[in-house]
Amino acid sequence: MPQDLNALLCPKSVAVVGASSNLESISGRPLKLLLRYKFDGRIYPVNPKYESLHGLPCFPDVLSLPETPDVALIAVRSSLVPEVIEQCAARRVPFVVIFSSGFAESGDATSQERVIELARKGGVRIVGPNCQGLANLARGIPLSFSASLDSDRPCKGPVAYVSQSGAFGFSSYSLAVDGGVGFRYVVTTGNQADLDVVDFGMHFLKDPEVRLLLVYLEGLNDGERFLELLRTAKEKEIPVAVLKAGKSPSAQAAAKSHTAAVAGDRVVWEAVLRQYGAIELDDVEDMIDLGIAFAAPQRPEGKRVAILTTSGGAGIIMADRCSDLGLDVPRFSPQIQERIAAHIPPFGSPANPVDMTAQVINDPEGFPICLDSALSSGEADAVVCIISMITGSSGQAMADELERAFRRSSKPILCSWLIDEEHGGQFLKQLHAAGLPVYRSLRRCAFALASMVKWQTGRAPMRPAIEASVPFLSTLPEELTEYDSKLLLAHYGVPITREKLCLSLEEALSAANDIGFPVALKVISPQILHKTEAGVVALRLSDEEEVRNAYGRLLERARRFDKDAQIKGVLVQEMVEGGLECMIGAKRDPVFGPIIAVGLGGIYVEVLRDVALRRCPVDEEEALEMVRSLKGFPLLAGARGSTKKDISALADMTRRISELAYVEKDLKELDVNPVIVLDEGHGAVAVDALALRGK
Q: What is the rounded distance in angstroms from the CA atom of residue 242 to the CA atom of residue 223?
């Protein structure tokens, strides 16, 4: 349940249980860091071996402390942890941080459950076990043993970071600090026996000084809570960047043993993170790049980028990277070009990218006017300045002008300065200190800007607004056939083929005449799910004689395929001719619940894996976006002179099936394939379907 974490993050008293005289050991370093950071609260070392430690009175156990501490840091071997938790529960210690390993991550779930049980009885909240603790860097409070905190490097800033992994969390924090990122908080949650990534993330979103939430995640047990974190972040306009580990099968196995968490399917994770506005990270470098970019207060209102460069080649490379990442580099209007052209050499270019050439340093007004022209043009939402090996007083002048422009600009300014530390270190440090995002890599600069644009311009994730309805699945048999599955679809307004389940040849002949030739015949049995492979389907039957001949033949094949199969009847179904084959599917993901998929049929699904995924439910706009994102979308849109298909009907069917999957909690999987999408204005029809029950 949500809880105020202020006493944990801003404690007035801290007990270090298992404190050591060796300040370089895991059990000694927490005490060393608290003293180094001049923690202004009360510190209580706890260890029966000592009467005092490093000038502080030492106590034999938690029960003997003169007061109840706000936080107890536990650095003892795992077998002693339950006893310590019992004492903390007796003293009503509100928070404990368990550094000790040897619990669920090593297969010992029983001892971890015992610790949780003891803590709950006393109202104790747990960070860990198997973690490296946390640090409130804004207040200078280290509750950790990490050596990365044993430093005088400047590290304060607007980034909050929560990592499931302790070692990776503080190592990546340390690298990010070296890269110029400033942090307010760093938290490692380890096994997440109690407090988890979401608990800390939600707390940090309440801090008005946090501009970016970084998350390293291996798995989740409650996907809905995590998605609520992403929704809340979007509402508060705080970007969330996620480095998700455990996507590949081997990595999933490692993640499970490492943090005892359940890792979800790779494709689902990627789709859901995009859908809910999270920025996906691949490595520590991405964390650094976004930490630098989002620390700046400016945000882009669109995806138009102005590129100013002293190197024509670098400008072209940047334009390519921007294009690859979905950004626009529009050509400037004649008016803007005329103003810029007056201050660059004739062999430069006033278009966009603006090639100022290195000669711009010869005109004291050249760079300022080019920069002002781009910022004030109304034709760009962000400006990227690429500076080559400009050194000395010229480099200083450019650094000063960039800093001045950055301080007064309402638009983002990013700089990629292609210079080494020896010649340009002072300029890079100056811009870093001013808060201007500066990079020495064109690719990383483009990635950071594209991430800002995608987050800023992305739509807010929808909250389900479906009226409560009685699930229909409960009225159907336990073992579902195609016929039952299509009844389920029809209940949610999904167009299905005209058809009738027949129990005799006479009924089949009558149904065929009512529906109109040609028709298809299918044997319906819950034991024969793949009817084509079993040979129990006959297509394009054009008259009564063909129906008569096919009817008995199909039943005979069904009995040969499975002599014990329960035959429910023979389905007589209209033939839907023309159109384009697509598919819509749904499955219940163990982390995020119902997931909807749409794609073109045939080779596009089987070989190219051309499908779009979202978490259910989706609205009409999201469903249309899914359809438009398909690589095969041009076939639907009427490519090369073909007839345009009913895209809106396909999107509407996707929406309806997503609502079905959301409401029907007992639905495990649903495969609607093929869906025939007819010409524009003529709709779409579900021709075949199969639903499976299961949690």
A: 14
What burial letters (b/e) apply to 623-635, b meaning 16+ CB within 10 Å?
Answer: bbbbbeebebeeb
- 269's enclosing H/E stretch is helix 266-275
- CA-to-CA dists, residue 573 to 193, 556, 674, 685, 688, angstroms: 54, 20, 14, 12, 10
Class of 151-291 in CATH: alpha beta
Is the fold of 151-291 the same as that of 296-457? yes
What residues contact residue 346 under an 8 Å CB cut-off, 6+ apart?
none
- pLDDT bucket at 62, cuts 50 / 70 / 90: very high
- DSSP bridge partners of 524: 569
Give the DSSP H/E element, type plus range, for residue 187.
strand 183-188
Kindly report the number of other CB atoms within 10 A of residue 548's CB atom: 15
Average pLDDT rounded to a whole number, residues 56-83: 97
- Asked if 551 and 570 count as a contact pair (C-beta separation under 8 A), the reply is yes
pLDDT in tens, 223-250: 999 999 999 999 999 999 999 998 666 5
What is the per-residue burial (b if ≥16 Cβ within 10 Å, else e) of 483-497? Answer: bbbbbbbebbebbbb
| pTM score, whole prediction | 0.92
The residues pairing with 523 across neighbouring beta strands, listed in sequence order, are 570
Beta strands in 565-618 (DSSP E): 569-574, 580-589, 593-600, 611-615
Contact, 142 vs 33, CB < 8 A?
yes
Cα(485)–Cα(692) distance, integer angstroms: 9
Read off the tokens for 475.
Answer: 């009225």
Asked if residue 525 has pLDDT above 60, the reply is: yes
Q: Does domain 296-457 have CATH number 3.40.50.261?
A: yes
Q: How far is CA 52 from CA 17, 44, 474, 510, in A?
A: 13, 10, 68, 96
Class of domain 498-574: alpha beta
pLDDT band at 364 (very low <50, low <70, confident <90, very high): confident
User: What's 360's DSSP letter?
Assistant: G
Distance CA 201, CA 648 (A): 38
H/E stretch holding 158 reads: strand 156-163
Strand, coil or helix: what is 311?
A: coil
Indicate the residue type of 632. Answer: G
Q: Which sequence spans correspond to the domains of the chain? A: 1-130, 151-291, 296-457, 498-574, 580-693
Q: What DSSP character marks residue 54?
A: T
Contact 649, 655 (CB under 8 A): no
> Could you tell me the CA-to-CA distances from 251 to 217, 263, 272, 421, 541 in Å, in that order?
12, 9, 19, 37, 51
Q: Is the peptide bond before 674 cis (omega within 30 degrees of 0)?
A: yes
- What confidence score (pLDDT) does residue 3 get? 63
Cα separation of 529 and 484, whole Å?
12
- Report the chain's terminal Cα–Cα distance, integer Å: 24
C-alpha to C-alpha distance for 422 and 425, rounded to whole angstroms? 6
pLDDT tens readout for residues 104-123: 888 888 999 999 999 999 99
Write the DSSP assignment of 435-467 as a string of letters: T--EES-HHHHHHHHHHHHHHHHSPPPPPP-PP
Tokens of 477: 């048999």
Q: What CATH number has the domain spanning 580-693?
A: 3.30.470.20
State how far the Cα of 512 lies from the Cα of 38, in Å rounded to an integer.
Answer: 87
Q: Which ranges of 298-365 would DSSP assign to H, the alpha helix?
A: 312-324, 334-341
Please give the Cα distance from 116 to 695 (Å, whole number).
27
CA-CA distance, 251 to 407, in Å (whole number)? 44
CB-CB contact of 122 with 156 (8 Å): no
pLDDT surpassing 50 at residue 1:
no
Q: At 442, which amino acid appears?
A: L
∠475-477-483 over CA atoms, to 5°? 95
pLDDT at 293: 97
Class of domain 1-130: alpha beta
Are 190 and 130 in contact by the 8 Å Cβ rule? The answer is yes
